[in-house]
Amino acid sequence: MGSIGYKIAQRARAFEMKIVYHNRKRRKLEEEEAVGAIYCERLDDLLQRSDFVMLAVSLTPQTQGLIGKRELRLMKPTAILVNIGRGLLVDQDALVEALQTGLIKAAALDVTYPEPLPRDHPLLELKNIILTPHIGSATHQARRQIMENLVESILASFSGLPIPNEVLLK
């Protein structure tokens, strides 16, 4: 539950949803209490408990394929998988199978791999999925912030300063 996950938790709290989260580092107790969040040390525990599993995760070598056949089998048959992170977080072939067989109830994907999906991709044929073309952040405010961050990073780079919010893959 990074910055985006925390914002989602604030909104979910308004709907009186129970919030469980998994993260590399546990958030401060005050932050958890503010949104009523419960930390799951193991991702497997979160998957088994959750009605909605939302992925708001950066793509790294460690997170690629984060949700595959094994993880989908751990989820409730009534669970809904939501991916707003990156397409490669989810094994899409395993997801197709899970949706076709009723292993999970549904999915909502704002991201896929590749983007866009080929016209004949099996995800496009399913009735229990919602697909959007990576537009979850398409608000004027979000796009303005993206541009401001871009300009700030370019100026820092030209000045020989550290790049703000730089992601270094190991």
UniProtKB/TrEMBL annotation:
Checking Gene3D superfamilies in the record gives: NAD(P)-binding Rossmann-like Domain
Location of the D-isomer specific 2-hydroxyacid dehydrogenase NAD-binding domain: 1-136
Q: Which GO terms describe its cellular component?
A: cytosol
Which keywords accompany this UniProt record?
Answer: Oxidoreductase
Gene Ontology MF: a single term:
glyoxylate reductase (NADPH) activity
Pfam families, sorted: 2-Hacid_dh_C
Membrane-crossing residue ranges in chain numbering: none
Parts forming coiled coils? none
What superkingdom heads the lineage? Answer: Eukaryota
Q: What family is reported?
A: Belongs to the D-isomer specific 2-hydroxyacid dehydrogenase family.
Q: What is this protein called?
A: D-isomer specific 2-hydroxyacid dehydrogenase NAD-binding domain-containing protein
